[in-house]
């Protein structure tokens, strides 16, 4: 499960900084450009989506799909392409979130928040899908080391170079659901 992620607006490549400047102009109130690095369920973010143009476009999305009284924040990669609740979004409305890390919580009784980052890049994307009302869920897979030592599931992590294939190429998207994860490192542990 992915219940929080991080985006540090001060890190990043020139292309990411240019994108963040567009977000600051369009939506100055949005996380993470309002000085907050940790992003949680229910918050609005600027996500990357495909609206048919030559580049990925920015969309203002809210994390979590409201299902009655329940807020669903993740979808399992193993069932997202076939489960009626998520099938249409996976096939037609994939999106991605810029991130510099994601958090998982160790089991009770410790219940510590643990930050994971990509070993060989400052930023990456988390694979997600959005519904017609611009709510999104992050896609998760069974955890691999080092995340597996802390939690049973983890988000699908994409390199920035994989953003457009994720958004536009159905075969790439299907393969991303079951491919081996990218190299991650445990960055920090803290109290909840």
Q: Can you characterise this structure?
A:
This protein has helices at 14-26, 87-92, 163-168, 170-176, and strands at 4-6, 38-39, 44-49, 57-63, 65-67, 70-72, 74-76, 94-99, 101-105, 113-118, 124-130, 135-142, 153-155, 157-158, 184-190. It is of the alpha+beta class and 192 residues long. The chain has a single domain, classed as hypothetical protein yedk fold (Alpha-Beta Complex). The strands form 3 sheets. It has a 5-stranded antiparallel β-sheet, with no helix packed on it. Strands 3-4-12-11-8 form a 5-stranded mixed β-barrel. A two-stranded antiparallel ribbon has the order 5-6. It is globular. The protein starts with a strand and ends with a strand. 35% of the residues are buried.
In short:
With 192 residues, the protein is α+β, with helices and mostly antiparallel strands. It is built from four helices and 15 strands.
Features:
192 residues; alpha+beta; hypothetical protein yedk fold; five-stranded antiparallel β-sheet; five-stranded mixed β-barrel; 4 helices; 15 strands
CATH architecture: Alpha-Beta Complex
- Poorly predicted runs are none
CATH fold name? hypothetical protein yedk fold
Structural class: alpha+beta
Order of helices and strands: EHEEEEEEHEEEEEEEHHE
Would you count the extended β strands for me? Answer: 15
Secondary-structure map:
Layout: E1 4-6, H1 14-26, E2 38-39, E3 44-49, E4 57-63, E5 65-67, E6 70-72, E7 74-76, H2 87-92, E8 94-99, E9 101-105, E10 113-118, E11 124-130, E12 135-142, E13 153-155, E14 157-158, H3 163-168, H4 170-176, E15 184-190
Parallel strand pairs: 4-12, 7-12
Antiparallel strand pairs: 1-2, 1-9, 3-4, 3-8, 5-6, 8-11, 9-10, 10-15, 11-12, 11-14, 12-13
């Amino acid at each position: 499960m992915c219940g929080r992620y991080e985006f540090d607006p001060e890190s990043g490549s020139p292309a990411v900084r240019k994108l963040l400047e567009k977000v600051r102009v369009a939506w100055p109130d949005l996380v993470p450009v309002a000085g907050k690095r940790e992003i949680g369920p229910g918050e609005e973010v600027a996500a990357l989506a495909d609206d048919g143009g030559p580049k990925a476009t920015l969309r203002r999305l809210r994390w979590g799909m409201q299902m009655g009284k329940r807020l669903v924040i993740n979808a399992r990669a193993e069932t997202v392409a076939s489960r009626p609740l998520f099938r249409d979004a996976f096939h037609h409305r994939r999106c991605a979130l810029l991130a510099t890390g994601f958090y998982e919580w160790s089991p009770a009784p410790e219940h510590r928040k643990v930050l994971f980052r990509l070993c060989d890049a400052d930023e990456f994307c988390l694979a997600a899908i959005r519904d017609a009302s611009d709510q999104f869920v992050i896609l998760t897979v069974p955890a691999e080391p080092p995340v597996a030592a802390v939690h049973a599931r983890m988000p699908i992590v994409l390199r920035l170079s994989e953003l457009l294939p994720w958004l536009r190429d159905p075969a790439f998207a299907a393969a991303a659901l079951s491919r081996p994860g990218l190299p991650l490192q445990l960055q920090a542990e803290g109290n909840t």
